[in-house]
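Weekly modeling sync, notes
Attendees: S.R. (lead), two postdocs, one rotation student

Agenda item 3: backlog of single-chain predictions. S.R. asked that every request posted to the team notebook include the full sequence so nobody has to chase files. The rotation student volunteered to paste the first one in as an example of the format we agreed on. Action items at the bottom.

Example entry:
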Amino acid sequence: MTERIREFLRNRREDGPCLVVDLEVVRDNYLTFARALPDTRVFYAVKANPSPEVLSLLAELGSSFDTASVAEIEMVLAAGAGPDRISFGNTIKKERDIARAYALGVRLFAVDCVAEVDKIVRAAPGARVFCRILCDGAGAEWPLSRKFGCEPSLAVSVLEHAHRNGLEAYGVSFHVGSQQGNPEAWDQALTAAAEVFRNCAERGIHLSMVNLGGGFPAKYLKEMPAVEVYGNAIFQALRRHFGNAIPETIIEPGRGMVGDAGVIEAEVVLVSTKSAEETLRWVYLDIGKFGGLAETMDEAIRYPIRTPRDGDAVSDCVIAGPTCDSADVLYEREPYALPVSLAIGDKVLIEGTGAYTTTYSAVAFNGFPPLRAYHI
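Predicted structure, as returned to the notebook:
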C-alpha cells in the first residue's frame, strides 16, 4: 500500500471492487531487477498484468517481453516495443499463431518437443528456439511442473532436430516455480542446463542462452528474500556451472514485477455463522475466485488483508466470494484471522494483488462485472 493508492481510494467514486496499481512501484521493481542482474535481459511476463499502462512503462524503461499468445504480442507492439524485444514463450502454440508472430517480426520461440519444432520449421523458418526443461519447483508456493518442459536428455534431441532443420538452436529455459522462496533453487536447474549445453556441443551445436524464467516472489504474508539475494545466488550458480563461459541470460519476472504494486479494495457483504452454536464466522466479500482471486485456489496464495478495524480482537473465519458457486471460497482449510468487530459494509484492502487478478476475472459470472482496474 502506497500513499498514492491511499489518496486514490479516498477520492474515488464507489463502483464496486477495484484494483489500483501504483506504476511508480512497477518502475522501482524493474530498476531493482536490472541492478540485481546487470548482465541479464528482463523479459516481463505479460500474463501477470497486461494493462497498456504497465506495458508502456516497461517498454519505455527498456524491458523485453515474454508473451503467450498473438494477442499479447500485439499488446506489446502497441505499447512501443519492437519485435526484437519479444519472446513467444508458450510451448503450446497453433501453427497459424506462429506464422502470425513471425509475420509481426518475432524471431524467438519456446519449444519442448519435436512436434513443436516442426511447426516452427514450417511457419517461422530460420527462427531462434530455446527448449524448456522440466524443473521440480521445490520451494515454490505454486510449482509449475509437468505441463511445460521435457527431460534434459530429450531437450538435447529437440535442439538437435531444430538445428538440423534450419532453425537456430539458441538455448535452454526452465521455471523454478511461482513464488519461489529459495534463492538456491536456480542451482539445480542450472546444473541440468549446463549438461544440455555440453551434450549439444558434443553434437556440434553451440547454444548461447539460458532463460532463467520467473519465480521471483511478491510479498504476501511471508517475508521473502530481496531481489538482490536472488541475483547474487543466480550469478554464483552460473559461475559454478559455466565457469568463465557464462552464456547470455534472460529472466521473466511477472509476479515479482507487479504483484506488490497493486491493492484491491473490496467490501464486506455478509458476516454469518452456520448454526446457533457455531463460533466460526463466514465473511463474504464482493470479490472472490471468479472476480480475480483465482490464485486462492487450494489456498496457494494467501493475500494480506487489511481492515478499518485492525487492532481489535481477532478470531478465525472462513472467507468467501459473492457468487452462487460453492467453489467460491477463498480460505477455509486454513481459516483467516480477522477482527471480531468486522461488519457488513466495511471496506477491506487485499494487498499484493497487482499480478494475476484482472486477467483471471470472469467476464460476467452471475452477472458480476469484471474487476475494474486503475493504474496511477
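Discussion: group reviewed the output briefly. The chain has two domains: 23-257, 260-375.
Action items: rotation student to repeat for the remaining queue; S.R. to check formatting next week.
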